[in-house]
Predict the 3D structure of the following.
Amino acid sequence: MQGSGVKPGVVVNGRAGRVARHPALIALLRQQLPRENVYVTRDPSEVAPALEILHEVGIDTLVIVGGDGSVTGTLTPLLQVWPNESLPRVLLAGGGSVNTIAKSLGVRGRPDRVLARLLAGSRPPREDPRPLLRIRAEGAEPVLGMIFANGGGPRWLEFYYKHSDRGVRGAVYSVAASLGSAVVGGELAREVFEPFEAELELDGQRQQPGRFTAMAAGSVRHIGLGFAPFTSAGRKPGHFHFLTMDFSGWGFLRRIPGLRLGTRSALAALGHASSQRVVVRTEQPVPYTVDAELFPGVKRVTIEAGPELRFMIV
């Protein structure tokens, strides 16, 4: 059954979009491994105990079944349970509504089929080492993830979560609503692209204060819906791609074709840096998101390269 020689353990987010819509996926996963190697969680508090048991079982590969929010929801407690020197390899098998991070790393297919390919060992899995982002916000416990955004990013996500079904269709609808609002100068566009004053510190170097509408950082190239602005992600060990945006909704609308295609001129309209540590200080609290999970506004947040994980692609 395990021709590849790997010793995987699976943590399933039972509330993730695809898992909730197709509960038979859980049985298909359990058919492939001993029962003590597959855990289904329904609440964030259940993840750490599941990881502790998998650590005791002696797995060498952690398979995460869930969407983008499941990434930060699993990797944050992983670093609390596992010593850094013996971290398992990680396979993001999807299972959510969108799965931006898994797809950006190159993983495709249903979670049970992804696990089956891993176990079959018919072709050697590829390892892709990436640093986690460690996000430290004032008054909050640090969280780990792969994609950070503040300003316009979490404001758009808040609209998406409230007014549409989760998934690609809902995301497309929310983008269309935001752009339609930008055309007419509507309230939604003004809220999403509300500017904020901020001062940045990039790898210890203070930058001139500026006015922005969004910032983002990524250890993978994609940020969602085919947009891949993190062009340096994965290229330099221990670094992530950090970018800033200062244009309005109308300015974003005009640049969408170029940003979607990744043209040099469109990407040049953003501020870019390959960084190990970024500190953002703002005059007013600004909301942020980590792997599509929303967090309340803060005046100071630090994004730094955390431990490097070996992500598997099968």
